[in-house]
Amino acid sequence: MTHKITDKCTACGSCKPECPVEAISEGDPKYTIDPEKCIDCGACVSVCPTDAIEAE
Asked: Which own/partner pairs from 37-43 qualify as long-range (CB within 8 Å, at least 24 positions apart)?
C-alpha cells in the first residue's frame, strides 16, 4: 500500500525532504507521491500540517 496526497495539500513543501526515496514531487496545485517509488514508510504523514497525506 502506498500513500497519496489529497486536495487538503497547501503545497507547503514540508513532506518532500522527509521522503527517503524521493517519491514526493512538486505539483500544481499540490504535491504528488509517485506510487512506483513510495515504500509506505509514512515519514511524510507525521510532518504534514494539514493532514493531507493518507494511505491508499
From this structure: 38/2, 38/3, 40/1, 40/2, 40/3, 42/3, 43/18, 43/19
Q: Domains, the chain, ranges and CATH? A: 1-56 (3.30.70.20)
pTM: 0.92
- Digit-coded pLDDT (tens) for 22-53: 999 998 899 999 999 999 999 999 999 999 99
List beta partners, residue 4: 54
CA 28 to chain centre: 14
